[in-house]
Amino acid sequence: MRKIFLTLLLLLPALTIAGQDRRLSMDECIELSRQNNPRVANAVLSVTAAQAQRHEARASWFPTVSASAGAFKALNPMVSVGLDDVLGSSDAANALRYYAETVAGLGALSTEWSALGQGYAAGLSLTQPLYAGGRIATGNALAALGVKAADAQRDLALRQNDDSVVVKYCDIMALQGKRNALEQGISLTSKLEEDVSVAVNAGLARQSDLMQVQLKKHELQAQLVQLQSGVRLARMDLFNLIGLEYEPDDLDSFELTDNFDALSSPDAYRQDLADKAAAMDENRLLDLSVQEKQLQRTMTLGEALPTVGLGASMGYGQLIGEPRLNGMVYALVSVPLTDWTKTSRKLQRAKCAQQQAENDREYLQKQLAVKVGKDWMELQTAWDLLAAARESLALSEKLEAQKRAEYDAGLCTLAELLQTQTELQTTRIRLVDAQSAYAKALAVWK
Predict the structure, then answer these.
(1) Closest by alpha carbon to 84, among 68, 96, 67?
(2) Of 47, 308, 354, 434, which sees the most CB atoms within 10 A?
(3) Rounded distance between C-alpha atoms, residue 225 and residue 152, angstroms
(4) 308, 130 in Cβ contact below 8 A?
(5) What whole-number distance in Å separates Cα of residue 434 and Cα of residue 393?
(6) Per DSSP, which regions of 270-391 are E strands?
(7) Is 0.85 topped by the overall pTM?
(8) What is the pLDDT of residues 380-400, one digit of tens each?
(9) Per residue in 109-139, pLDDT tens?
């Protein structure tokens, strides 16, 4: 209920009203993307379709009941029997026929019998399969396997969707971090510009020094303009991915609440590599693929086995004589006699397909184990690089403060101070890149 309430709040039309503050966390973006991503929606529909197919397969266990009704009217009776048909064409038969026709004529009787000129019939039949070579049980097992495969495909689609959102969210966070770094650089340069301007007015610095500082400030401001444009484009990309409505002139009112400050070390997410690889959706799909080939082989074998069933029917109608009710019970046994050669070849193909699935599973499971190990190493490497970037920033800040003190004391030139501030700016950006890289590696691992 909390998620539903949160989703309703996020989808309120007020989101498109300019000037309002909006806060979006990474989890909220993931939730919105799951609701609006057509790939996720299709994966969920595949699960529903697989469940419907499983219920369809279960119906094979139960008897089939059918009803039928019909009527007909022929131009001429389909069965007609006269005296010639009964007596033949001998002299005695001709005399007997003449006598019978004479007598029949006196009583207004007909010497010809006909049937099936018109009629009607209605019936109800029931058939219960008893044995179909194991194909009913195998079909139900395949349908149940299809539900598991659809579930795994849905989970995989959700994971891929979440990964896409995390990457785009981290890209925006990185761009915003770089923007903050540029703003800090502009702030330092502006303060230096004020100091140099005072020194120029006092005759302690040259006008060219002031112009050099102003040039550096303008360069940083130009970079900031480009970066702000990049942030807006990245926000548009993210909002389109999660299906969030927005106005182009209102992008800056959205606040992304997550940041890189709460990143924990890899030790907090350590898992057994073999267990993690075994639990992956890809591994589940590989196992299901092998099971499917095994069941398909069993289904092929069932085509060569006998089929046994029981049935009953009851009907009412008039075809010959008076209308009447009738019924019967029956047994059906079907034994394929000429399909053994064809079925044996199909079994060979099914066996080859099963072996191929097992070979693919063995190979790809090793690849998954390699990928999990690679993801863990990349996560540890990203953390080490992040720690190094943090140490570099701390040193750069100390160096900039020292150079500023030396400049104020006249012990270093303005060019040296600007170079130190540029290195500080670069170090801050490297830290943001390291934070973004670790956040993405952590998302992949999690």
Answers:
(1) 96
(2) 434
(3) 45
(4) yes
(5) 12
(6) 307-318, 324-334
(7) no
(8) 999 999 999 999 999 999 999
(9) 555 666 777 888 999 999 988 888 888 899 9
